[in-house]
Amino acid sequence: MYFALTDEQRALGVTVRDYLEDRFDLKAVRAVFEDAEGNGHPAELWKAVGDQGWAAVLVPEEHGGLGLGLVDAQVVARAFGAGVVPGPWLPTVLAGEAVRLAGSDEQKASLLPRVAAGSLVATVALRGPAGRYDPSGVQVSADSSGRLTGSALPVEYAEVADAVVVAATEPAGGAEPAGGAEPAGGAEPEREVGLYLVDPRSPGVTVSRLDSYDGTVRTASVVLDGVGAERLPGSSTAVLTELFDRAAVLTAADLVGLARQALSRTVAYDTDRVQFGRPVGSFQALKHHLADLHVAVTMAEHAVLYAAHALDVGLADRRLAVAVAKSKAGDTAREVTATMIQYHGGIGYTWEHDSHFFYKRAKREVYSYGDPIQHRERVAALTIDTPTTSG
Predict the structure, then answer these.
(1) pLDDT over 90 percentage in the chain
(2) CA spacing 20 to 30 A to 40: which of 46, 370, 380, 389?
């Protein structure tokens, strides 16, 4: 079966890339990167996100969105990666997905049109300090009245967010065991995970900025102390897993976008750079390595595309596809951006060169929503560890 982007999807990618190259190029990225005290949220860029419909890509049409799928969203994410673009597009889209997947009709009607229009900045707080990007990493708990206590980090753009979707553990059925009785045998009661809407300006919420080597993003810790929250009624551990998968695919798309751009810039530089009377890109060791990297980036691009398609249509192997895509994209982007620095020679190691934007963003995103090790463990669990039944 031949599988590729449609003409409309390719046109979307070209439109986003062209706009960013014209209106928010690497000089603009550098300005955000070097403004360590700033919020990393350029107002003119966010206005474009709303005006161009980039935040509306996954919002249903009845709520003012484009009603497209994850394949279309990964096209936008890939363009943002190629431009190492800052801003809260990804966390806002993910918060919108949480509401779309688990919100009530009233919550959807209230929040999704604002997400689509770019008038709402939102983010997601889904894991605790050093926790895994899966339900076991949640370190916020909800009591029987829906008040949240615990901490989450890293949370992207929490300082500028108007709403935060928080994952919190809760007893199965949403209530504490009757009379506080201990379960038989002293075992911990089974706990479900719910998703809650939190106003970051509410009493009991503490947002503290975290240092980051990647200046294309701003992250923070969010500490909750008995904070009142609004539960998304359709949320569950399964919905959280779906949200993690969507986040992993969009992050992987960003990684392959920046990997492709980093490779293209490296090839162009080594085609022009001359040593010993020849372009250095003509040396066998370099050109063979660059060819291998081209193959690796192409394979990662296809893995991400298939994973997005698998989630869109609910294929049986969608979890496996996500794990393959995120691990492949992370490994590839890490190698390509490191090579970018090395193959640019001495200039590549300087602050004045743009290569560090790509390297630092890739290094951070490799660990976002599951690093390659976690996703390879997931591949093993879904294949080697899965029992088979005989015919």
Answers:
(1) 82
(2) 370
Question: What pLDDT was estimated at residue 279?
Answer: 72
DSSP 182: P
DSSP 323-351: HHHHHHHHHHHHHHHHHHHHHTGGGGGST
Same domain? For 65 and 144 the reply is no
Residue-number span of the structural domain to which 111 is assigned = 7-121
Domain count, the chain: 3
Q: Please state, in angstroms and rounded to a whole number, the distance separating the CA atoms of residues 89 and 185.
A: 47
Boundary of a domain, candidates 69, 104, 121: 121
| Shared domain check, 319 and 207 | no
Terminal-to-terminal C-alpha distance of the chain: 28
End position of a domain, from candidates 220, 235, 250: 235
Three-state SS for 247? helix
- Angle between helices 284-313 and 318-343 in degrees, nearest 10: 150
β-strand pairing of 122-125 with 163-171: parallel
The reply to whether 353 falls in a domain is yes
Residue 25 lies in a domain: yes
Nearby residues of 231 by Cβ (< 8 Å), 6 or more positions away: 142, 146, 194, 195, 196, 197
Secondary structure (DSSP) of 258-316: HHHHHHHHHHHHHHH-EETTEEGGGSHHHHHHHHHHHHHHHHHHHHHHHHHHHHHHT-T
Asked whether residue 387 is assigned to any structural domain, the reply reads: no
Per-residue pLDDT, 349: 81
Q: How confident is the model at residue 69 (pLDDT cuts 50, 70, 90)?
A: very high
Q: CB-side exposure of 353: number of CA atoms within 13 Å?
A: 21
Distance CA 295, CA 314 (A): 28
Q: What is the pLDDT of residues 316-345, one digit of tens each?
A: 999 999 999 999 999 999 999 999 998 888
Residue 136 falls within a domain, yes or no? yes
Q: Domain holding 46: CATH number?
A: 1.10.540.10
Cis peptide before 233 (omega within 30 of 0): no
The helix/strand/coil state of 252 is helix
